[in-house]
Amino acid sequence: MASGEQLKALLKSHAEGDDDRFFSVAMQVAAHEARLGHGRLAEELRTLIDRAKSQTGAGAPVPIGRPRGELANLLEASYPGARLGQMVLGEELRDQIRRVIREQRHAGRILERGLAPRRKLLLTGPPGTGKTLTASVLAGELGLPLLQVRLDGLITKYMGETAAKLRQIFEATGRTRGVYFFDEFDAIGSQRGLANDVGEIRRVLNSFLQMIEQDRSHSLVIAATNHPGILDPALFRRFDDILHYELPDRTQIVQVLRARLASQAVKRIRWRSLANLAAGLSYAEVVRAADEVLKDALIHDRSLVREADIRTMLKERQTIADKLAARGV
Asked: What is the pTM (predicted TM-score) of this model?
């Protein structure tokens, strides 16, 4: 039987995601059982350890620990519960996301045939259209941690250091299966040769191109940008699929408003009229307007929200959006 210290060490290493330490302690337990004359149990433990070490496929256990050491400054871990059914999307985009989820769920069968499931994705489109939420949904649907790359920790002023940190991230994809999310990807993926290009960023982009090409892990690598036009053309060939996001149409705006407000709204709301007023807003802006309506109702002790309240908040969001657009934001 494992000692109390060994049990504590096993739990601690598992919680921290320290696989090397976990397997080392497990081998100590197997050796301890062998010394006690429990040869069959010791052999079974060794077999289980060897099998676990070799499980680098899509079905391998996912360490639950958060990034440690230097990776803690590079990756922000979360465990989202978002689901695809919660998103309002066009059918074509929804089908693309469904395809990624299906292929990941059947990754073992796909890999056995010498094929590869989609797992390197580029998300493009205006702000607030669901790119970040898609990364959360993929993590939630697949039961994986979402590991968002922290650009403030990745990009430094020291020559060569950014590329070295990038390599740490790609090495982590092989150790810990998860959804690795590069938001604002144009910060490192802009075209080589742009007027404001500097040598270090060019080297970082070259490193990224090599690393994503060589990546054979079973993690998902997702990059998102609001500015696909400035990405280096070589990047597009490195991704398995490109998902493009658009601003919601009026039908989708109605869906968002009804999902957020219908249960707490008065009867006979003219949702279509409100959608016309919100035309041109992003999903995030429509959701924010709806949340402002709910907060206003709470503050003024109203049990139900009125059409006039929704209209007021949508107009406010339109005014803000117009001002930002005039400034080129």
From this structure: 0.76
